[in-house]
Design brief:
- The chain is an alpha/beta fold.
- The chain has a single domain (5-247), classed as TIM Barrel.
- 43% of the residues lie in helices and 14% in strands.
- Strand 2, helix 2 (46-52) and strand 3 form a beta-alpha-beta unit.
- It is globular.
- The protein binds 2-phosphoglycolic acid.
- 2-phosphoglycolic acid (PGA) is lined by residues 9, 167, 172-173, 211-214, 232-236.
């Protein structure tokens, strides 16, 4: 049985004070049982969220990590630093990092291996095709190549601990959601690909989220798809009431 997992991705939104007021409100709400919930926030918000979410069952996540433990990497944050904070998950390879900050499948792979071999932190790996690639009918080819490169060198145990977020780039922040059929088709394809690489048992257990304009109005239909186990939610995770409606799908 795969447990539903809904994660918010705050991107570069919310100061510490804003994070604090979100967290105090959000933790006071009644949430449906059996759904894992996380907020992946800017680094400065992480200590605030860790404290504010203590004993609430709500997890705190980072949005990036460096693949070295220390060194001359101005502006970067390492795994030992995240471990000290006690974060439970970490987004890796978000399309915005791939597009604007030079993230490649090679660096994504190094970061995943770092998290999986050096900590119990759950990586949330983002994959997904661009609009031109979808229009050219190349979405499965593009995502298959990402999965192969991003999972390179992993053991089955490491693969199964990785959460995959399928995020078609054309659906991120655009209000344009993939139809539930399109999202399911790709998530089923990703599961099949994981099966080819790591065996059926891993494929049956791995958690696959959909991301891209998930909101209260469409979450139910998305979560009803057999190969979609959760959602990575950007814009709609910034508002505590909207995010509550989503996690209570
Ligand atoms: P969105 O972002 O929900 O605002 O489309 C999703 C994401 O980038 O993870």
């Amino acid at each position: 049985m795969r447990q539903p997992f809904i994660a918010g991705n705050w991107k570069m939104y919310k100061t510490m004070a804003e994070a604090e007021s979100f967290a105090q409100l959000f933790r006071s709400y009644k949430r449906k049982e059996g759904v894992k919930v996380a907020i992946c926030a800017p680094f400065t918000d992480l200590p605030v969220l860790k404290r504010a979410f203590s004993y609430s069952g709500i997890m705190t996540g980072a949005q990036n990590v460096h693949f070295e433990d220390r060194g001359a990497y101005t502006g970067e944050v390492s795994l030992p630093m995240l471990k000290e904070l006690g974060v439970e998950c970490c987004v890796v390879g978000h399309s915005e990092r791939r597009a604007y900050f030079g993230e490649t499948d090679e660096t994504v792979n190094k970061k995943l291996l770092k998290l999986l071999s050096g900590s119990q932190i759950t990586p949330i790996l983002c994959v997904g095709e661009r609009l031109e690639e979808r229009e050219a009918g190349r979405q499965t080819e593009v995502v298959a190549a990402q999965i192969e490169k991003d999972f390179a060198g992993m053991t089955e145990d490491q693969a199964v601990r990785t959460v995959i977020a399928y995020e078609p780039i054309w659906a991120i922040g655009t209000g344009k959601t993939a139809t539930p059929d399109q999202a399911e088709e790709m998530c089923a394809f990703i599961r099949k690909k994981i099966g080819e690489l790591f065996g059926q048992e891993t494929a049956d257990q791995i958690i696959i989220q959909y991301g891209g304009s998930v909101k209260p109005a469409n979450v139910k239909e998305i979560m009803a798809q057999p190969d979609i186990d959760g959602a990575l939610v950007g814009g709609a995770s910034l508002d505590p009431e909207k995010f509550l409606e989503i996690v209570n799908f």
